[in-house]
Amino acid sequence: MAVTVCGSHTHSGPTVSKGIGWGELSPEFREKWIELAVAKGIEAFENEEKISAVFYGKSMLKEKLGMNRVLEDGPTDPEIRWIKFIRPDGRTKLLIHNHAMHGVVFGPANLLVSADWIGAVNALIINEGIAEDTIFLQGALGNINTVPVCVNDVNEGRKHIERISASYVKSLVAGLNNETEMINTNIAFLSRDFLLPVKTVTPESLRKTAEKLATHGRSKFLIDRLQEMALYIEAGNSIDVMAELQVLKIGEAVVYAIPGEPFLELGMELMAKSPGFPVVAAIANGNCRYFPTEDIFARFSDILSQPSGGYYEIHQGCGRFMPEYQDNISQFIIEKLLEIVAVCL
């Protein structure tokens, strides 16, 4: 049996992991979520039914919804990729849709639990009868935010979520007839673990970086995490990053599951090189932080040269006791996933 767990990555949910600096862990919410997910999975297995056809395609956005938060005027995701499963009576039993954009309309002052624009889109798809059920697969979102981002006023945030979701669904529906029917629906799945390439760090190098940040008046949070990671290594702990990469093939559709937040350009290159109809599912089966491209590492080679809030996008990891990735991390992930899919063909 193969299981893939994917996150939509709302920034308005309770803390469910032991990451440092992101609030207190909510065991009640996490346990209830696990119980619900398991129950829904069992329900799905017990209610299988035959379908008459599977279609896939792309819907172009009618208006730009996101922004590149690392590069001014940088690329954003221009389309929605989708797969729909059709009942014998012609109704859509399930619609899987995929787009790359953080769920960050709401800001930190909002204490409500919200699925952000993604939840609003899924509700519209079901309420408007577009599909009986829907699944959102978050795309390569690492450097893509909503416009606007982090709205603290709840009522204003809701208005923007309504606007974004309405525009998204309008674009999605407009492209649903531009469909290609799957020749077959054979399923293949392969998962492999990899030790990700990281840059060598020592307690001394971490403390020097913390010193550098302190000298230039940078975030005390980052400085504290670097110093803690130095102590963590000195205590004999490993900061190697082991990750699971998965490929799920359904007929011509190929879903690439990546355990972190790949930059959009990584996802676009992977899809361009992939056979079949590719979909990138980010934040799947784990959180290994951000995966920038070599171009981004070259543009922001020094920790002090980061764009606003860019430490975690590029020179990231200290909040999770992980070192910085090698500059070739993007190519490493692309190459390994293409090797996996070649076995599935």
Question: Which helices and strands occur, and which strands form pairs?
Answer:
Elements: H1 27-46, E1 53-60, E2 66-68, E3 79-86, E4 92-99, H2 116-127, E5 133-138, E6 144-146, H3 154-175, E7 179-181, E8 187-195, H4 203-215, H5 220-234, E9 242-250, E10 253-257, E11 261-262, H6 264-273, E12 277-281, E13 290-291, H7 294-299, H8 329-344
Parallel strand pairs: 4-5, 10-12, 11-13
Antiparallel strand pairs: 1-3, 1-7, 2-6, 3-4, 8-9, 9-10
Low-confidence stretches: none
Instruction: Output the number of helix runs.
Output: 8
Structural class: alpha/beta
Within the largest sheet, what's the order of strands? 5-4-3-1-7
Summarize the structure.
The protein has 345 residues and is an alpha/beta fold.
Textual characterization of the structure:
By secondary structure, this protein is α/β, with parallel strands linked by helices. It has two domains: 48-181, no CATH class; 187-344, no CATH class. 33% of the residues lie in helices and 21% in strands. It contains eight helices and 13 strands. The strands form four sheets. Strands 5-4-3-1-7 form a five-stranded mixed sheet. It has a four-stranded mixed sheet with strand order 8-9-10-12, with helices on one face. A two-stranded antiparallel sheet has the order 2-6. Helix 2 packs across helix 3, helix 4 (203-215) runs antiparallel to helix 5 and helix 6 (264-273) runs parallel beside helix 8.
